[in-house]
Structure formats: C-alpha cells, structure tokens
Amino acid sequence: MIRDIANTKSWQQTIRPHPALRQLDRLVGTWRASDPSGAGSIHGQVTFEWMEGGFFLLQRVDLGEKKGIEIIGYDEESRTLKSRYFSSCGELLEYEYELEDDTLIVSIDAPRTKGEFVGTFSDDGNTYTGSWEWVQDGVAMGYDATMTRVK
C-alpha cells in the first residue's frame, strides 16, 4: 500500500498543464464588462484566476442577473481549450476557446445554440472589445461588449 501511494505522488509530480493553457494568461484578472454603445445591454464584472496546479482557469461571472462560474481546461481528445459554464439559473453550457495574437474567439455549438464571441485586445492588453453573435432556437441574437481590466 505504501508503495502505491509513493508511485501516485511521483506520477502527480511529473504531470504538467498543457502549454496551450498559457495562451489564457492574458485573461487573468478582474474585468469590468460594459456595452460600448451605451445601451446597457451588458454590465458587470468577470474575474479569471488559475486554479491551484495551473490545469484549469476559473472565470467568475457577475453580469447583474446573469451569474455563473466557468472552468476552462485543455481537452486532449479534441486538442482544444474547452470549458463548462454553470449559471445561477441552472444552465450548463460548453464553450471552446481560441486565442491567437490579439484575437479571442469563444464559440458554442450546442443542440439549440450555435455562435461565437470574437474580440480584439488593445495594444496594452488592458481592454478587449468584441461581439457575441449566436442563433438560439432559430432566433439570431447578440450584443457588443467591452472588457476593461480593473485589476
């Protein structure tokens, strides 16, 4: 029994987070979410932080009535950054993340909902602006969002 525990500890020490996760470093921090048009369709705050061990990035969402938590990690099978979002309304949504250069793409491809967010980071990395566009049950929806780092 002691030998099994020793082998488990050794194995745990050799496993490292997938390098693709490091792309998400620029999201770490607290961001103020706002609607660039001033219409107020989105407002609130989101916070990204690494879970201990660095295998998962956690996002805490507080957009007024829309609250939730998202867990983002590397999926070996699809070789992509995938997430699960759990809302305070009982929704469970799955997303895929891509971050290349200054462009962030978050996509959803669920039975009733298909769409994506495409955003661009500012030169200093403290703002990203983009649009969510999706089709849910045959109805096109969307909004623009500006995310500004507050810490």
Write structural notes for this entry.
It is a single chain. The protein has one domain (17-149): Calycin beta-barrel core domain (Lipocalin, Beta Barrel), CATH 2.40.128. It has 151 residues and is mainly β. The model has no long low-confidence stretch (mean pLDDT 91). Strand 9 (127-136) and strand 10 (139-149) form a beta hairpin. It is 9% helix and 57% strand. The chain contains one helix and ten strands, in the order H-E-E-E-E-E-E-E-E-E-E. A ten-stranded antiparallel beta barrel has the order 1-2-3-4-5-6-7-8-9-10.
Structure keywords:
single chain; 151 residues; mainly beta; Lipocalin; 10-stranded antiparallel β-barrel; 10 strands; globular
Low-confidence regions: none
CATH architecture: Beta Barrel
Name the helix and strand elements from N-terminus to C-terminus, one letter apiece.
HEEEEEEEEEE
C-alpha termini separation: 47 Å
Principal-axes shape call: globular
Reported by name, the CATH topology is Lipocalin
Helix content class: under 10%
CATH superfamily: Calycin beta-barrel core domain
What is the helix tally? 1
| Secondary-structure-derived class | mainly beta
Mean pLDDT figure: 91
Which CATH class?
Mainly Beta
Largest sheet: 10 strands, antiparallel, barrel
Radius of gyration: 17 Å
Quaternary organisation: single chain
